Amino acid sequence: MKRIFGMILMLLMINLILTGCGKNASLPLPQSSSSDSGQYNQESPDYTDINPYPPDFADPSTEQLQENDGDSSQAGAAGSADDSAVDVDLTKLSSTMVFSEVYNMMVSPDQYMGKTVKAEGVFQVFQDPDTKKNYYAVVIADATACCQQGLEFIWNGDHAYPDDYPEEESEIEITGVFQSYQEDSSTYYYLLVNDVKPV
After folding, report:
1. Which residue among 46, 120, 138, 148 has the highest number of C-beta atoms inside a 10 angstrom radius?
2. Hey, CA dihedral for 114, 120, 121, 127, is it positive or negative?
3. What is the H or E stretch that residue 153 is in?
4. Residues in contact with 164: Cβ distance below 8 Å, sequence separation at least 6, in sequence order
5. Strand 186-198 relative to strand 148-155, pairing
6. Strand partners, 198
7. DSSP string, 79-99
8. Closest CA to 47 of 36, 57, 58
9. Do 111 and 180 touch, CB atoms closer than 8 A?
10. Taking CA 132 as the corner, what is the angle to CA 130 and CA 133, rounded to the nearest 5 degrees?
11. Cα dist. 75→78, 103, 173 in Å?
12. DSSP characters for 14-70?
C-alpha cells in the first residue's frame, strides 16, 4: 500500500513540475499580417526598436550647435575649447573601445573622412623595402595587448626622420584630420597631423 501511495505521489509531483503549476508562462508574440512581410509593425505596442544606430543623441541638433557657437571662448581650464574641435577622441575611450573604434575606421572609412581624430599609442616606423620610403604610425593595442591596429599619420610640414620624430616604440599623442591617398592602385587612410607629442 505504501508503495502504491509513493508511486501516485511521485506521478503527481512530476505532473506538477511539467505543467508549471498551471499558469500560462508564455509571452505574447507580435502578430504579423501579410502586409508587413514578417517585419514588426512600428505602430504596434509590442514593437521595440532595440539599439538603433546611430543613436538619436549622437548628432547634436541645429539649436545645440547654434547655442555652442559663442561658448568656445568661455571654455574651462580643462581645455574643453581644444577638445571641442576633436570629432573622435580615442584618448577618452577604454582600451577595448579604442581598438574597436580604430578597427571601425579601417572597415568604414567614409564615416570618418574629414573628421578630426585624437589618438594615443606607440610610435612605429615602417619602411618599404623596395622604395625605402618611411611610413609613420601610432599603434593601438586592445585590452589584452594581443591585437594591434595602427593608424598611419603624415606630419604636416618639413620634418626629417629620425631627427624631428620621437624615439621609436615611445608613447605619443596625435591629433589630425582623417584622409586618404592613392598609391599603387590602392587606397590608404591616414591622419594629417600638425603636431606629434610625446606622452
Report:
1. 138
2. positive
3. strand 148-155
4. 155
5. parallel
6. 172
7. -HHHHHT-SEEGGGS-HHHHH
8. 36
9. no
10. 115
11. 8, 32, 22
12. HHHHHHGGG---PPPPPP--GGGTTPPPTTSTT----S-SS-GGGSPPHHHHHHHHT
> CA 109 to CA 131: how far, in whole Å?
26
∠ CA 172-175-176, rounded to 5°:
130
pLDDT digits (tens, 9 = 90+) for 147-176: 888 999 999 999 999 999 999 999 999 999
pLDDT in tens, 81-126: 456 789 999 999 988 898 889 989 999 999 999 999 999 999 999 9
DSSP code for 146: S
Cβ pair 90, 119 in contact under 8 A: yes
| Sign of the torsion angle spanned by Cα atoms 168, 170, 174, 179 | positive
Q: What are phi and psi of 90, to 5 degrees?
A: -75, -15
Task: With 0.90 as the threshold, say if the pTM is over it.
Answer: no
- The cell numbers describing 109, all together, are 572609412
